[in-house]
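Exercise: predict the fold of this chain.
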Amino acid sequence: MADANKLFKVEIITPERMFYAGDAVMIEFTTTEGDIGVYKNHIPLTAVLAPGIVTITENSGKKKAAVHSGFAEILGDKVTLLAEIAEWPDEIDKNRAQEAKMRAERRLKMKEAGLDVKRAEIALKKALVRIDAAK
């Protein structure tokens, strides 16, 4: 059991719901600048979220979720993620994610005229994150 002095508040909010609210010992997530791990009393920081796996370490263990784009606000005693989409592994349709991955890879491989490469790359990254989270 973690020392209560090491706990801080974590909230993950999407436009549809309060995805997660609880106390954590550590949270790890992906930003546009790279992966970050946060403990209590981290320096205040804001960051842009990138598609990735969020790992919340609680007293009772770890929880993982897929998060797709948004913003992070880190304060000494609270971390808030405002996410476009957040999904627990059991909420992810593995077949749909696999199909999305194949579609994005096909688009990138064919390089048709007018292809929005950045959009196709983001779609591929989101599909890969969902597949990874659903394992």
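Check your answer against the key: The longest strand covers residues 61-75.
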